[in-house]
Amino acid sequence: MIGINWVYDPVLDVVTDLTEPLDASRRFGVDAETVGSHALAFTQGLHANRVASCAIETLAATIEEIYTSMTREELGDDAARATEQEELESLELLIGKGCLDSLQLASSLHGLQNPTQLGRSIQTAIRLILRERLDFEGPVIFDCSTLPTESIACPKHAPLRALFGDCDMVRLSNDHNTQIASIQAIYAAAKADDLNDSTTAAAAARVSKLKDHCTSWEIALAARGDLSAVLAANAGLAQASYRASITALSKDPTPLLNLPPTSVLVLFSPTVLSPSNPASAAVSDPFEPLGHALARSHSRIRHVPYTVSAGLTGTHMAFLSRSTAVVLVLCNASSAFTEAQKEFTSAVRRAVNDRESALPGTETIRKVVVGAGDPRDLRGDWGKWWGVCCYEYTRSALEAVAEVIVGDRVATGVLPVG
What we know:
single chain, alpha/beta, six-stranded mixed beta sheet, elongated
């Protein structure tokens, strides 16, 4: 949109742990063949639209194999086994097809207890496997953005160790103070001539080649002073992308289709940080756009947020007692950090069942559950709840899912997990 067409995708890791909140929803499959074929199609699609890819791969098993061999001071057979790891198959396919522009090593290696040895392991993996065996000549980026502050690898020095390990680029920590400390450490190393000149020059050449491929400086420079106009010009494309991603879990029509005008629809949404500014406490409810979007089709909307600490309160029960339709939003409830969301949703479901049992005749409450993040939030038996996923809770995503909830549009997305 602004002339810098470089995408941090696809993820080349295979799914190994279905309990990890973001594992299965970001990865293509449980075997290397499936991951490789999907990743190849993904990158070919990017190239068809003049967009460069930056595949994401932890290389965890490979690097740990090398790390272990260094611990025993035996790099022979162990290094050979490292080059046979299944995780390399997807990489080999993309590189062989000329479809891998750059590669990011994910930051899941901080558990290894010797930072210096970890740096040497990364260096060996890059030189021995990526450069020599796979003949990969694109830039290698190491992700230091989410290293835990308690990591023995010392987050402020992790980027410098990655550069010493022959990485061409690094992603700095999300923490502002750690960012500053990391930049200072890199400058100090450069001033002391600790960074190898020839290695730095080779890295610069690889990065420049990537920039020539994926950057239009004419577009980028022209857009500098008028980004709002660029965003407005691409609003239609963004809206179409969000609409295409919305996924319904049932082939049945939405229960909110033709909702009577006199019905009271209650919207329960979790109190979470704003996706546009997650570093600070949310000033406004990030799910407010969903309430407004639903209100365009039905005027009697009652939006009641919930907190995981307070759970189901008397206020929620009071609104629920007057409702004839309920929309319940989950946001990454599969994460261990938001387990209390599950407790709230279970309480809501019990309360809805109790209210339905008290209704006359065959009357029921129309029930919709929305997964605004990890689609695995909607796993399990939801009974007669109608499920739909929008994968994130930006304004555009919420407006798109609202169209599906009220029946103005049919969901066409496909779940990334089974």
